[in-house]
Amino acid sequence: MHLNSDDEVILLGCSNGLDLDEQVRLKITSLYDCLVNEFNLKVNISPTIYIDPINNETHDATYRKEELYNALIDPNIKAIFDLSGGDLALEVLNQFTEDDWRAIESISDKFYLGYSDNTVIINALLLKTNVKAVNFLATNIVKDKSGIAKDSFKRVLFNNERINRGSTTPNKLDESAIIIGGNIRCYLKLAGTPYFNLDNADGLLLEGLSGDINKMRSYFSQLDLLNILDRMKFVVIGQFSEIKEKGQEDELYKLVQTYQNKYNFKLYFTDYVGHHEAVYPFIMN
């Protein structure tokens, strides 16, 4: 499965809406122009990517859910690019009913791209549908000055190349593997919800923006208590921004290796998944 020229896509937001200032609008305009002029896509823009101009708050959860649902069931939409992040994506999941999921459970010819707080959307789609879920923020293709994000976006989503797992180790991950997780803080929001466990998951992806080594010790303890780590064949560790900023990467690696020794899962590291701009689209399924 891959995107083609003239495919129709949509830009939307399930989490916090973006500000309406000029700088943000220029960024979205730049992305739109790139997708249309360089990738020859037909691009729709949902108002949910921005805050509601009437009350200067993120749009109502019901509206955000309807925009996502309609994009999922629309056979003309081949990819959903979620440009939001923050704290509010879980509100959208709370609006879905079992009837909604039944209506979209067989959909397989569509990509959903999101990151950070939209980890909760990604994992729900992995559990409830056959949508191709991708950990990636589309605005990085115009923000990343190195060109890595744009090049990998083309190679993965248009050329269907196997850099999609982004592993820096010599061993490529199994292309058929199903990987859960994403942002560690946001993934743990799903604990206790119907969207947390995926019985046929092979691996776990973890990355993070905020959180020092003490928070990571707590998060990994929670993953262990939830019996996630003992079920994984492998774990992929992306970039943890605050950990990197504080020079605590060695401590993080030792922490993860403690659990590797306990459960004997394979361990991979990648610099190309995280909250920075030079990232690859990481396909989860």
Automatic annotation (TrEMBL):
Key words of the record: Carboxypeptidase, Hydrolase, Protease, Serine protease
SUPFAM superfamilies: Class I glutamine amidotransferase-like (SSF52317), LD-carboxypeptidase A C-terminal domain-like (SSF141986)
UniProt entry tagged with the keyword Magnesium: no
Gene3D superfamilies tied to this protein: Class I glutamine amidotransferase-like (3.40.50.10740), LD-carboxypeptidase A C-terminal domain-like (3.50.30.60)
Keyword ATP-binding: no
Highest taxon listed in the record's lineage: Bacteria
Molecular functions (GO terms): carboxypeptidase activity; serine-type peptidase activity
Pfam families: Peptidase_S66, Peptidase_S66C
Domain LD-carboxypeptidase C-terminal: 178-284
Domain LD-carboxypeptidase N-terminal per the UniProt entry, residue ranges: 27-133
Any one of the GO BP annotations: proteolysis
Family to which this protein belongs: Belongs to the peptidase S66 family.
Protein name: LD-carboxypeptidase
Lineage summary: Bacteria, Bacillati, Bacillota, Bacilli, Lactobacillales
